[in-house]
What we know:
Chain A is of the alpha+beta class. Chain A has helices at 3-15, 18-55, 79-88, 124-127, 140-144, 154-161, 206-213, 233-248, 261-304, 306-314, 319-356, 364-391, 394-399, and strands at residues 60-65, 77-78, 93-99, 101-107, 112-120, 132-135, 149-153, 170-175, 178-188, 201-205, 218-219, 221-226, 256-260. Chain B is globular.
Amino acid sequence: MNIVEAFLISFQAIWSNKLRSILTMLGLIIGISSVVTIVSLGNATQITIEEELSSLGVNSVYIYYEKSAIIKPSEKFVFNDMSYIEENFIESVLFVTPNISRPGEIISDISDAGLIFNASTTDTDESEDLTLIDGRFLNDFDISGYKKNIVIDSDIAVELFDDTKISGNKILVKTGNVSNSYNIVGVYQKEETIGGFSSAVAYLPYTTMDMIYKLNGQMDGIKITFNSTVEDPDLEKERIITAIERRKNNLGEEKYSTFSAEDLIETVSTTLGMITLFISAIAAISLIVGGIGVMNIMLVSVTERTREIGIRKALGAQYSDIMIQFLIEAVTISIIGGFIGSIFGGVFTSIGGKLMDINAVVSADSLILAIIFSTSIGIFFGIYPANKAAKLDPIEALRHE
Amino acid sequence: MLTVKNLKKVYGSGEISVQALKGINFTITEGEYVSIIGPSGSGKSTLMNILGCLDKASEGEYILENHPIQTLSAKELAVVRNKKIGFVFQSYNLLPKMTAIRNVELSMIYAGVSREERKKRAMDVLKKVGLEDRMNHKPTELSGGQKQRVAIARALVNNPSIILADEPTGNLDSESAQGILKLFNELNAEGKTIIIVTHENEIARVTKRILNFRDGLLVSDQEVAK
């Protein structure tokens, strides 16, 4: 018996039990559509996050203290390290900015808010890619004068003043138990981020931060923004670290580590990939349940059609003929289920993409995978019932009512 | 063309074993019209299953067209059933969801006959049994006699060596039964070898030779006087 013939017979069998076939397929439809949706949305999220992260500057690198290392006071980053790096790597380095963040509070007449203070140079607006919408950013005069001037984000501005055009206003900055009056010199546009989880950040002159937080001129880390003409930021980063190590007399002791947007992208990608895989694995369980459904209905079908099997055997059907017939029936149910599931997966993906505001499309890979997967399920869960049918004794089967 | 020698069939084993056939010998030559008769428990159904290659004898020989059947594998037996034997059953055994022509095509599917050829041969044979206007009807839309004609058409279509009919008129009214027996007569007149298994003497008398079974033994083998 040829395969085309077997497919025709199986279509006939599936069609003559429409409701039952559809219910059996439902398990696979749910399983395949969820796997396709999860994989597609996961991939789309990953791509979107990567794009957003790289727009934050793949050209920059943070230098920190190695976590496990014991750092002597003489080995800490100090403010004049910044000008040292800028002067010595003038070709490759665009900006060097301090990396110092401290929690605090700001209080206006109307309201108050908790937020993070970042120590800034006059370049921080550019190195952080800030868009000012009111006033100005911190200038040399603010830095050298230890000015109590502050730049806040638009969300905080609206929260405190109900407006973004508020530069020139005064607010109270509370750090620990001390409160001081500050001038708002500028407001920058708060960027929307995926998921909306990001803390409010305000920028202060690093000199002022040094004073109020008693930093003794030391920094938590340094952010270096490279010139876009730098071909190999990794190599440049190593050179800078070596220079710093020479300066701190700890060459080769590996007391400093680096972190770049590229590293972040890699970490986020890996994490997201694992989360997607994990959720897919859970969804895949429903595929196994669906497969068991296929096996169940095939076993019912074999019992119901025992006499038919007997007749076919009496007319000359061999073991392989009956085996192929029932196996193909199981595979056909699974493939149709997989196909419908893929269509639903596509629909869910585009709905999910719209809701999450990301550009999500079903990838060809996930569709091919879905079809291969559903075929395998059909074969795997179809073999036992098909073998049971093919093994039937023709005399017994013919006697079956 | 068909010889059984000292054929025995035992069901079960040890003390609870039942000897259904206790050593049977006969030969049927080509073109014969034979009935196998006997009450229930006589072993005639067991013999029919063995002759139809659905079952194997426990002992003895069964030779069909020079093939020693008892040496064949299950796969080879399926081929023999397909090519050499045409079954006609008491309860027709048509597939209910298929039209008459599809039912007739069934055994040709397993013989690997092409689609066009199948259709042509099925139509020819259905015409032969007088069902040219019922080809696209399903079994539920056919009378008992018509169903049995479809079954006979199906049995004939691979041009088998023997037609093996098990109580072919058992479910039919006497008029339909007469029609079926007449059809067998015609087929035999054309040279077909036909074996009818029955418990009714009137039907056996229509054939040309009666093999009478009782308690697993062939008790008489006689020509029917016409």
